[in-house]
Amino acid sequence: MEQEPADNPETGAGEPTRRSRREGRHGGTGTAKSPMLTWLREIALIVGVALVLSFLIKTFLFRAFFIPSTSMEQTLEVDDRIFVNLLVPQPFALSRGDVVVFRDDLGWLPPNGTHPQPNLVQQALTFVGLLPDSSQQHLVKRVIGMGGDHVVCCDADGRISVNGQPLTEPYLAPGSDNKRIPFDVTVPEGKLWVMGDNRNHSADSREHRDESSKGFVGAGSVEGKAAVIAWPLARIGFIGSYPEVFANVPDEPAALPVRSGQ
User: Fold this and answer.
1) I need a labelling partner for 90 at 20 to 30 A (CA). Which of 9, 43, 73, 97 fits?
2) Minimal CA–CA distance to 216: which of 184, 234, 194?
3) Computed over its alpha carbons, how large is the radius of gyration of the chain?
4) pLDDT at 9
5) Catalytic site residues?
């Protein structure tokens, strides 16, 4: 029986030649991929994903702000950088004691004038939420009264009361004097009564009672709840709401006693 001739490596049939094996390992001529190009593509993908995530976090979860004044000392100090939880007041509700950042819709602040055009790096950091937007006016205060609350200053010990319950406020700056500005207000529904922790140096709800707003801030103006001090590093930490201060506050004001003969 006649045998078929064995494949000859030199003819290209059968076992691949050294050249064909070498081309197979390197993807053939004209199709080689540069390791540097692959690395750059991976880095660009990672950076792109990080920017998208940062933008989504800034838009829906957290946003950066800085503290320009002493009104919230010693809870917040000048030049602190804070992150604000944007999930408060929606979908999560505000509570008495929360430190909130709100838009200056009532014109409590003087015009901020013109700001120098930020450079590209600053614009990028603002876009992703790592720097505050200096073109907008915001304030930061602590919520003392909410819709329906009766807030009064002061009792014989200089304490503010909410719905008849006196408050012992451990967050106040040393030397704060509530008696300096007495008041007696009932907070309308959908509004807030806000005060700074540095009571002697805070132009808060007390200072604006003669205006059309009566000093009340709309809950819709709240950007979010101040959650964390992010900078400087020595002050990193959570911002407390002190729920124990308001734990005994009734949900509604106590009914006034009815006088005999009425």
Assistant:
1) 73
2) 194
3) 32
4) 39
5) 71, 141
